[in-house]
Amino acid sequence: xxxxxxxxxxxxxxxxxxxxxxxxxxxxxxxxxxxxxxxxxxxxxxxxxxxxxxxxxxxxxxxxxxxxxxxxxxxxxxxxxxxxxxxxxxxxxxxxxxxxxxxxxxxxxxxxxxxxxxxxxxxxxxxxxxxxxxxxxxxxxxxxxxxxxxxxxxx
Length: 155
Hints:
Layout (H helix, E strand, L loop, with lengths): L1 H32 L1 E14 L6 E10 L5 E5 L4 E2 L9 E7 L2 E7 L2 H41 L7
Antiparallel strand pairs: 1-2, 1-5, 2-3, 2-4, 5-6
């Protein structure tokens, strides 16, 4: 039973690690292929989430494209507790010239916090299951050696 639990735990860790890696690889082309410009936070959109009354603040940013078209977008990453940005704050913006409305704030947190957190948790789950797998295996091997009367110096 414990081996099955460790296998499930390790597989779950690998799946979460894979998801974080995939998410990070999807974020990379945003930096490589998109155009960078400056934008201004015009407001913080407050959204109550789920069953809790916790408020998540999403910055709303306006910027001008290289063709001088004004674009307004709401960030997909929000902050809880208090707004991360104040109205009037200048931020880096990454956008696709073919679809400027699909823009992102170009900060490390906005681009990489999700993939790094997800991948990091997956890695921790996987390594813990691997460590427990080895430790339990060594412990059971030692019990078998003690039960058979053999010396258990090296296990």
